[in-house]
């Protein structure tokens, strides 16, 4: 799955030039998605970066270290944007304008530029200039109020929903949509990607199904939020877990059979008053066998029962191995293969290590028409940086 030049040329986003301003989790994922599918992504880093702000999603990117807070640095970015297709910026409302790099400036110089603004609260509204994190965006979207167990506070999962799904993935979708439209109009546009709105949009099913009875009970007592015994996670005898999602009656019947029970001797599946007692019964049965033993019982059935795999185990699972769902880079690090899988122009992710900050500064500037003399002056003025101080200028 390592990228080769011929394979890269055949990818769906081949030829798309992206500038990604270095930031935290959502923007790096957005840039990595574009890079995985063939875009040439340059990550514009600060000259120095704290370990906490390091980009672990730098696959397929190159790094240019640049001080945007100084006018000479902002001028370098403006020049780069004239030849770019996409700019991804992750700063709070008003930051880019203060640097003289707002969309009204950059789009005037390059009308075909797609200017993607990825923030928590969006470019307008009461919280536009406020700090926040995944849990805050999730809270304001309404989604957090639906997450959690019965009689407990709402529970925020790891920062997958707002940061990555509502932020990084939705922003990448917006960029691809804008690129598609630009093929007809020839014009760029501004993308206002709010993580609050992104995760709210992801939750459309919750909104659309409110009158379907699925969410009519308090949090943690409904069909899909931990209330039902047949949509639950159970501990096995070896301390591992099995995930059960046997919603449909025919699947539920196979679950009951696999557990060694007789449905004629049990309450009706949708008898909500019996759900707590049934959960206890199922839990006691699952606790009697190991995860591997339960897999041997349920694999190949339609009981909708699967093992809860750890990150250490997931790549070696037979199904994932058969699909090559996980890849290994040159350093032996395992990560998910880009998705979805395209039949003609699949992603061919880079297997090289992530770039060092400023590793490709000179290379990128030369490609964009800067002379060696200009680069040397920018370096001596500490406007740009290199990962190797002895770079040959």
Automatic annotation (TrEMBL):
Superkingdom, taxonomy of origin: Eukaryota
Pfam families on file: CoA_transf_3
GO CC entries: mitochondrion
Enzyme Commission no: 5.1.99.4
Assigned keywords, A-Z: Isomerase
Gene Ontology MF terms in the entry: alpha-methylacyl-CoA racemase activity
Signal peptide segment: none
A biological process term (GO) from this entry: bile acid metabolic process
Reactions the enzyme catalyzes: (25R)-3alpha,7alpha,12alpha-trihydroxy-5beta-cholestan-26-oyl-CoA = (25S)-3alpha,7alpha,12alpha-trihydroxy-5beta-cholestan-26-oyl-CoA; (2R,6)-dimethylheptanoyl-CoA = (2S,6)-dimethylheptanoyl-CoA; a (2S)-2-methylacyl-CoA = a (2R)-2-methylacyl-CoA
InterPro entries the UniProt entry points to: CoA-transferase_III, CoA-Trfase_fam_III, CoA-Trfase_III_dom3_sf, CoA-Trfase_III_dom_1_sf
Annotated region (Disordered), positions in chain: 320-345
Pathway membership: Lipid metabolism; bile acid biosynthesis
Keyword Zinc-finger: no
Family assignment from sequence similarity: Belongs to the CoA-transferase III family.
Function according to Swiss-Prot or TrEMBL: Catalyzes the interconversion of (R)- and (S)-stereoisomers of alpha-methyl-branched-chain fatty acyl-CoA esters. Acts only on coenzyme A thioesters, not on free fatty acids, and accepts as substrates a wide range of alpha-methylacyl-CoAs, including pristanoyl-CoA, trihydroxycoprostanoyl-CoA (an intermediate in bile acid synthesis), and arylpropionic acids like the anti-inflammatory drug ibuprofen (2-(4-isobutylphenyl)propionic acid) but neither 3-methyl-branched nor linear-chain acyl-CoAs.
Protein name: Alpha-methylacyl-CoA racemase
Gene name of the encoded protein: Amacr
């Amino acid at each position: 799955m390592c990228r080769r030049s011929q394979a890269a040329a055949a990818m769906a986003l081949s030829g798309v030039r992206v500038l990604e301003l270095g930031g935290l989790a959502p923007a790096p994922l957005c840039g990595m998605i574009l890079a995985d599918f063939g875009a040439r992504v340059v990550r514009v880093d600060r000259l120095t970066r704290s370990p906490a702000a390091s980009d672990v999603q730098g696959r397929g990117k190159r790094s240019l270290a640049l001080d945007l807070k100084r006018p000479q640095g902002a001028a370098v970015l403006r020049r780069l944007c004239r030849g770019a297709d996409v700019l991804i910026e992750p700063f709070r409302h008003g930051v880019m304008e203060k640097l003289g790099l707002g969309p009204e400036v950059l789009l005037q110089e390059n009308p075909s530029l797609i200017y993607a603004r990825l923030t928590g609260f969006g470019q307008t509204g009461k919280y536009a200039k406020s700090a926040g994190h995944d849990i805050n965006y999730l809270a304001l979207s309404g989604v957090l109020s639906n997450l959690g167990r019965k009689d407990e506070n709402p529970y925020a999962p790891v920062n997958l929903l707002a940061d990555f799904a509502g932020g990084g993935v939705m922003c990448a979708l917006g960029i691809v949509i804008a690129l598609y439209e630009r093929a007809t109009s020839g014009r760029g546009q501004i993308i206002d990607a709010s993580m609050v709105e992104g995760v709210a949009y992801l939750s459309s099913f919750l909104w659309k199904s409110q009158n379907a009875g699925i969410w009519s009970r308090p949090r943690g007592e409904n069909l899909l939020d931990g209330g039902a015994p047949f949509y639950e996670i159970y501990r096995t005898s070896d301390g591992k877990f099995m995930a059960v999602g046997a919603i449909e009656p025919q699947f539920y019947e196979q679950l009951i059979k696999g557990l060694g029970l007789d449905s004629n001797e049990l309450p009706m599946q949708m008898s909500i008053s019996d759900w707590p007692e049934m959960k206890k019964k199922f839990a006691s049965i699952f606790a009697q066998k190991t995860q591997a033993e339960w897999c041997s019982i349920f694999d190949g059935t339609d009981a909708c029962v699967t093992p809860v795999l750890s990150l250490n185990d997931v790549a070696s699972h037979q199904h994932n191995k058969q699909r090559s769902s996980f890849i290994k880079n040159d350093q032996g690090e395992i990560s998910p293969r880009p998705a979805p899988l395209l039949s003609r122009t699949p992603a061919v992710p880079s297997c090289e290590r992530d770039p060092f900050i400023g590793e490709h500064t000179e290379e990128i500037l030369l490609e964009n028409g800067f002379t060696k003399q200009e680069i040397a002056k920018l370096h001596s003025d500490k406007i740009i940086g290199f990962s190797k101080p002895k770079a040959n200028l």
